[in-house]
User: What shape does this take?
Amino acid sequence: MNRYFFSDMSVMLGRSMRHIFRSMDTIITVCITPIAMMLLFVYVFGGAIQTGTDNYVNYLLPGILLIAIASGISYTAYRLFMDKQRGIIERFNSMPISRSALLWGHVLTSLVSNMISLVVIILVALIMGFRSTAGILPWLAVTGILVLFTLALTWVAAIAGLSGKSVEGASAFSYPLIFLPFISSAFVPTDSMPKVIRAFAENQPVTSIVETIRALLSSQPVGNDIWIALAWCVGIMLVAYVFAMRAYKRRAV
Amino acid sequence: MEKAIVVNGLRKSFKDTDVLKGVDLEVKRGEIFALLGSNGAGKTTMVRILTTLLNPDGGTATVNGFDVAARPDQVRQSISLTGQFAAVDEILTGRENVILIAKLRHLKNPRQVADHMLERFGLTEAADRKASAYSGGMRRRLDIALSLVGNPQIIFLDEPTTGLDPEARIEVWKTVKELADGGTTIFLTTQYLDEAEQLADRIAILHEGRIITNGTLEELKQLFPPAKVEYVEKQPSLEEIFLAIIGNKEGK
Assistant: This one.
């Protein structure tokens, strides 16, 4: 590892954070859609949904947070694609700076900006009646899982941003990710779903992550879900990391 | 060490197309070297190999005494690249762009470097505007300013004036000459014959993947039969007319 890796990376992080604050619409869009969805589900559909809990916001929030992350990371793909497109990546690559500093800068930017949107969404949820009995440790665990989930999806986004042929292609990959929470226990319990869909819903990553966060926030035992959730996050992250780095090095030689 | 760049038998192909078929050339320290060729002749491929962005398939290339494939980090320490398209960060201001590059070159006083560079390139007034609001010429100036941050010994300019208006073009030429006067080695590609004629100490013509001629302008001229003297009425070129009119306007 280059001895300047950390200083180069923090310069790159500063650069792309500036990009984000210069175009506030990226933060706003990332927050607005999940918040609108939360309002819709709580005040429109919520009355008809039987979850077995009296506070639907509490039930819904974990899924909403995952949707926010899934839509937030598509901007990382977009920003990487634009760097690649505008030739600035060639300037960086012909300079004596650490090779992966740019990529890590984008990844950390994604992490920071997603955490900002999550905080905004949680604040709105509090106004809507979200309450948690959890103490510091369970909240730290929730934060940890959300960080891992963000990193995992960010590396997936990096693959798309680096190998996409057009802006649309680079950012469209996130739509299926945004839909995954709908076919999980994020909005309604899986019991009511037809057999095949239920099997899918119960065995895809979102359900275990949602169940873990929900249990942590309401001080319930997390059981096996937390291990399944962690395995999914770490697994996706490692695989995506390897492919993203490969795509990055192939471009950069 | 006399030579800034030495290239021997350099080959590169993409899929079935042989772009470079054994290129040999040498660039002396402190000279302006122009690589002339039509579109698709392989000029950019040459530059990308010499600036460590691309590995050659065969042959060797050393820049500042370091092999580009084996010791890319040392090569990168000595060079900078100004590509065909202005590689500036459009969301950042001019000043932020220079500071960014100064920080990445690990210089001590990025702010001072920025002030100095922006003044040198006449961008002080526009320093705090976003680069996306710059005109083509200003963007090119910023681009070249970024390349000079940290005073690299060898500068690669890939078609630096393509897409520029005549005034901006002459500005770029002036900058290139000043740099060469300061002792910087310049490797320039161009498809404009007059550009090579104006700037270059040595000119090489890249055609179908090989260097077909290489020498000073004088040497190249000697390859042809001596000039005949003919009397032709000299019409001003449109460029001369344009510049004369613009110059008059600004003089008033």
